[in-house]
Amino acid sequence: MPNPIAATFRPYWQYRDLVRNLVIKDLKVRYQGAVLGFFWSLGNPLALILLYDFVFTHVFRSDLPNYILYLVVGVLHYNLFSQAVSQSCESLTSASGLIQKIYFPRILVPTSSLLFTLVLWVVAILILVVLYPFLGGIYHWGLLLYPLILGLYVAFIWGIALAFSVLQVEFRDLKHLVDIALMFGFWSAPIVYDINVLKPPFLEIISMNPLTQFMDLFHALLYAGTLPALNHVLIASAWTLGAVSVGMVLFRRKARHLVEDL
Amino acid sequence: MPPAIIVEHVSKEFILRHNRAMGLKTRFLSVFHKNKREKREHFLALDDVSFTLEKGEALGLLGHNGSGKSTLLQIIAGILQPSKGRVITNGRVAPLIQLGVGFNPELTGYENIFLNASLYGFLNKEIKRRVKSIIEFSELEHFIDAPLKNYSSGMQMRLGFSVAVNLQPDILLADEILAVGDQAFQDKCLNKIAEMRRNGMSLILVSHSQEQVNMFCDAFLLLDHGQVVHRTK
Ligand SMILES: Nc1ncnc2c1ncn2[C@@H]1O[C@H](COP(=O)(O)OP(=O)(O)O)[C@@H](O)[C@H]1O
Ligand SMILES: [Mg+2]
Question: ipTM exceeding 0.85?
Answer without folding.
Answer: yes
